[in-house]
Amino acid sequence: MPTGVAIRDARELLFDAAERVLLQAGPSGLTSRAVTTEAGVAKGVLHRYFADFDTFLTEFVLDRMARIDTQAAALQQAAGTGTVADNLTGLLTELFGSVTLALISLIVSRDELRGRLRQARPDPRLPILSDATTMIASYLAAERDLGRIAVDADIDALAPMLVGTGHLLFADRETEPPDGPAVRKVVTIALDSAAPGPSR
How many domains does the chain have? Predict the structure, then answer.
């Protein structure tokens, strides 16, 4: 890597390379050598910016998890617009893209990584899935306040149900990802119990 390259640029270069390796080779293929080879830099470059590979992986996953924060803000702003089912269908389809699924597999496969992530973002639940659950619960609470779902809707049960179902729908990598109607069907079924008004 040329001298004078900013640390941020080096981090992004390595993180982007790690994402490509993870998607192509899976968690077992994600090694420091694979990352630096994919990035086209000497192996020592990674250790110049990160104390060890576990530190690198932690920072990489946290960087990618920050995208969920962006999605959460967009979902919250969508409250009161469109339909609740359409908003959640779009969110689940975007959330469980190939990168997120690969990150979940990486987290599940590495105990040290899970431990470090929980230190960085304390939560006993599985990182990423727990963030998604919190995001959806917050959105549902906003929609409840707007009267678009029932006032007595069990958001604490509904949010993890949507996340778990969404994850199961997209996690089968032997087939094509589910299409919009398939995702919307499970979202609609889950929301039936939260519909406002006499129909409940």
Answer: 2
pLDDT tens sequence across 53-78:
999 999 999 999 988 888 889 999 99
Give the SS3 label for residue 81.
coil
The answer to whether residue 200 sits within a structural domain is no
Q: Is the pLDDT of residue 134 over 80?
A: yes
Residue ranges making up the domain that contains 34? 1-49
Q: Please state whether the predicted TM-score (pTM) of the whole model is above 0.85.
A: no
126 and 160 Cβ atoms separated by less than 8 Å: no
Residue type, 187: V
Distance CA 20, CA 16 (A): 6
Segment 102-111 shows an average pLDDT of 94
Alpha-carbon gap, residue 165 to 52, rounded angstroms: 35
Distance CA 91, CA 12 (A): 25
Q: Could you give the CA distance from residue 137 to residue 78 in angstroms, rounded to a whole number?
A: 14
